[in-house]
Amino acid sequence: MSFSSEAKREMCRTEEGKDCCRKAECYGIFLFARSFSLESVLLTTEHGATARRAAQLAAEVAGCVVNVSSAMRRSREGTMYTVSVDGGNERELLVNCFGYTGKEISLRVNLANLDSPCCTASFLRGAFLSCGTVTDPKKDYHLEFLVPHMNLAKDLLHVLNDLEGISVQAALVARKGAYVVYLKDSEQIADLLTYLGAPKSAMELMQVKMVKEVRNNINRKMNFESANIDKTASAAAKQIMAIRKIEEKMGLDSLPEDLREIAVLRIENPEMSLRELGGSLSAPISRSGVNHRLNRLLELAEDLL
Length: 305
Ligand SMILES: [Zn+2]
Description:
Layout lengths: L2 H10 L6 H13 L3 E2 L4 E5 L2 H15 L4 E6 L6 E7 L2 H10 L20 H14 E3 L8 E5 L2 H12 L9 E5 L2 E6 L2 H11 L2 H51 L7 H12 L5 H7 L6 H17 L2
Antiparallel strand pairs: 1-2, 2-4, 3-4, 5-6, 6-8, 7-8
Helix pairs in contact: 1-8, 2-3, 2-5, 7-8, 8-9, 8-11, 9-11, 10-11
The chain binds zinc ion.
């Protein structure tokens, strides 16, 4: 089951206690459905629990008969549920219940249905169940409402951005003749999911985010270390070239003992850090002491023709 379906399933398990809130959720579901007018009240969803909840709420709130049917789509795409109100009188009952004639040219949010602050979350839950999706956080942080009408999308944007108690900054963009109200910030998405009644999904999102951050930190650290290893390796290569040149031109035995010992040690241990080299000498010396001796070898080699 997708992350989005899981979040919706969680929302559909929310017990809506108050009558005003049940009405608000029903309103959100049908207002943001495919159509909401005298001619047609139609919701399509891939989510069975949403279809059942829509039908149940409409019957309860508006007392109208709702028809739910399902059809298998092409393999993999799963079942598509259609929720419709088929009788003209029934449709009138439903739209009137929320203060509409059903002949509106431009569909807007009727704020009279959100009179009590308790109802706003229920209304938005309905809207999300009807036209919302949330992307799997392993792929991306994205939550959106796909709204068929521009003014309705603008109204939804205002409701979201004016919420009390949670801070959400949604944005609006047109996509293929519809309007997308979306969120990109992971923490805002988690807050909104919790607000809509899906705290487990919100928690999962934050866990995925944490794992990603830890992994990024490890990657950063490993990149940093491998860059350092490269640096050590190229420095060692230069030192070894210099020592080979000295060996060839004048022989290592001609070197003073302190330089001869470090030269032999370096050739035998190209992977060692300066500190390790210093610790391996017969009389151990510091990192900077090793650095000093190796620099003397480099200078010496440079002077040789
Ligand atoms: Zn309420």
